[in-house]
Amino acid sequence: MLVSAAERIRRSRPCLARALVSVFALWHAGALLIGPAPESRAHDAVYVAYQRYLTPLHLNNGWAFFAPNPHSGVRMHYVLTDAAGGEHRFDFTQTLERGDTAFQRFTMLQDYLWVGTEPYATHAARYLCNRHPELAARTIRLEFYRVGILTPEQYLAGVRPLDPDNLIEEVHEPVGCTP
What pTM does this model have? Predict the structure, then answer.
């Protein structure tokens, strides 16, 4: 029985769709392996092909979530100084619910600010100053608290990750608030 060209195309569409989905699944699996992999010559050669896919989706995180040295976490506060010299302290991400659409952006911005990337710090300072117009803030100071890594012995002795003695403080220089 002869099959028309239109019939052959109609029959091949599910196969083509499966093939495309399979290729995308392999591409995505490769991206999940390459994105967080430690740097090497092989990684750098392959990473170029995946970079435009990984970066917008934030899939290019480091391997810091694996043992034995997981990322300890960073918490950011900002302190506004008003015209009278009074200080007002705010917690950067804790004012947002995890379901809030800005939560992920705020946590990513917090990571950029922690490493002291100047363009981000200046613009973030202006944004945070404008977020509290009722205070007429003169300066803003960013404070970061990194959690120290505990040994099993310390934990068994009663030390907890967020105990004040286990937090490593890093305070950035104040930035002026411009109207």
Answer: 0.57
